[in-house]
Amino acid sequence: MTTMKERYEQVLHRISAAAEKSGRSASDVHLVAVTKKATVEDVRQLIDLGHADFGESRVQHFTQIEAQISEYIGRRKELGKPDLTTPIRWHFIGHLQRNKCRRVVQLTRLVHSVDSLRLAEELQEIAEKKKIVVEVLLQTNISRERQKTGIAPAAVEYLLEQVGTMPNLKSRGMMCMAPYNEDPEESRPVFERCNELFKDMKKSKHCEDSFNILSMGMSNDFEVAVESGANIVRIGSALFGDDAT
Ligand SMILES: *Cc1c(COP(=O)(O)O)cnc(C)c1O
């Protein structure tokens, strides 16, 4: 059995090796620890190791674990633990149904999974009422797999233009997932295509300089994703194991 600290250091090491291999520095790539199979204790341990970015894909688990973790953050002082150097940032990474947006919006630093105009409009409406700005990534279905959500590459620019007209949404970049493959090299063309599209969009008049996040890569293919330009990787099972619940 490896410890959380060992797995965490191993993942960070692999990220920095992949960043260096592609001529970037390790600090250019951020790790989002995906909690869908993590226990609250796992997340507490990562926080104690200094980690701040966590991602969830299911609304119900998200609201539960977020509440337990904020209770823990409040209690750390009593436990005599040092103050956090960075506040915890939650990322929402899963398919978001419009009727569940309200719960997610206020707790999330970045929504990675905006995959339709209707969802963007719903988020805008909620954000306007709450008088907040919600930062989002546009999720693209590069491989056009039918079971995956995400907008078609050809429709990204139009959605970007629409989001650009919404005062309470800010598009920060793009997200994609590659189909699962034993061999991570199979993901490379998908990630490279997404990076090209990302760079094209950056040049378009609908984007500001803050359109600078490319979220791609999971436990089985994150090194290839980093080599293809990702600056956020979303990793669950390599940190928390495959069968924990
Ligand atoms: C579960 C999930 C991940 C993490 O997957 P692992 O293979 O466990 O690393 C990343 N992104 C999304 C959108 C997910 O749903």
Question: Concise description?
Answer:
The chain has 245 residues and is of the alpha/beta class.
Task: Give a description of the structure.
- This protein has 245 residues and is α/β, with parallel strands linked by helices.
- The protein has one domain: Alanine racemase (TIM Barrel).
- It is built from 9 helices and 8 strands.
- It has an 8-stranded parallel beta sheet.
- The longest helix is centred in the first third of the chain and has 18 residues, at 4-21.
- The structure holds pyridoxal-5'-phosphate (PLP).
- Pyridoxal-5'-phosphate is lined by residues 34, 36, 57, 93-94, 177, 218-220, 234-238.
Helicity, in percent?
Answer: 40-55%
| Domain tally | 1
- Low-confidence runs: none
Oligomer classification: single chain
Determine Rg (CA atoms, Å).
18 Å
